[in-house]
Specification:
The protein has about 190 residues and is an alpha/beta fold. It has helices at about 15-25, 35-40, 55-60, 60-70, 75, 85-95, 105-120, 145-165, 175-190, and strands spanning about 1-5, 30, 80-85, 120-130, 135-140, 145, 170. Helix 1 crosses helix 9, helix 3 crosses helix 4 (about 60-70) and helix 6 packs across helix 8. The relative contact order is 0.21.
């Protein structure tokens, strides 16, 4: 089962995953990076690992992840992957923060990933939480996300949700953490 935790900055994704890992330590925690694995190494920002770490590629690049998972349906059913963000994040960020990156090619990749994920056992937990009116998050040091930009991102997630073929469950992280853990476990069948 792939459990993806999506939502804007400060929506409680990581907190919820960390708590789930306390309840179910055999789950596999997958934390994505701000750029995909191949982008980091192709850009020259990071040295090319010697040899390439397939484990790193598997957990950080959705092309690898979905292909490997999709090719072992029986083995896959025995594990639960908790993914802190996913390719959905790229879609939302590229339509709100980095509009110049939202190209037809990017859209085609997104649609292909979404279509592939829809064929696998999955759930997307769309996390939401209120923040103070003066909230500011300095995302990756180059983009300040204030309440206005955060609201734009929430609207983009809501718009995506309307047309997505994926199984999406809304999580209100203003509620009790324990209640949300139980809600997630009920969806995961764990």
């Amino acid at each position: 089962m792939i459990a993806i935790f999506e939502g804007v900055e400060a929506s409680g994704k990581t907190t919820l995953i960390n708590e789930l890992m306390k309840w179910r330590p055999w789950f596999i925690n997958c934390k994505r990076t701000s750029r995909s694995w191949w982008q980091q190494h192709e850009s020259g920002d990071d040295p090319m690992p010697e040899p390439w770490d397939l484990n790193e590629a598997f957990f950080y690049d959705w092309r690898f992840f979905l292909e490997f998972i999709g090719n072992d349906s029986q083995g896959f059913g025995k594990a639960t992957f908790l993914c802190d963000r996913s390719f959905i994040t790229h879609q939302i960020f590229n339509t709100t923060l980095y509009k110049e990156l939202h190209t037809d090619k990017h859209q085609a990749f997104f649609e292909a990933y979404e279509k592939k994920l829809a064929t696998l056992p999955h759930v997307v937990f769309l996390c939401k939480r209120d923040v103070a009116p003066d909230f500011v998050d300095n995302f990756c040091g180059d983009v300040n996300i204030d309440v206005s930009k955060r609201n734009e991102m929430i609207a983009a997630y809501d718009e995506w949700r309307k047309n997505s073929p994926l199984h999406i469950v809304e999580i209100d992280n203003n509620a009790s953490l324990q209640d949300n853990v139980l809600k997630c476990l009920a969806e995961l069948g764990a």
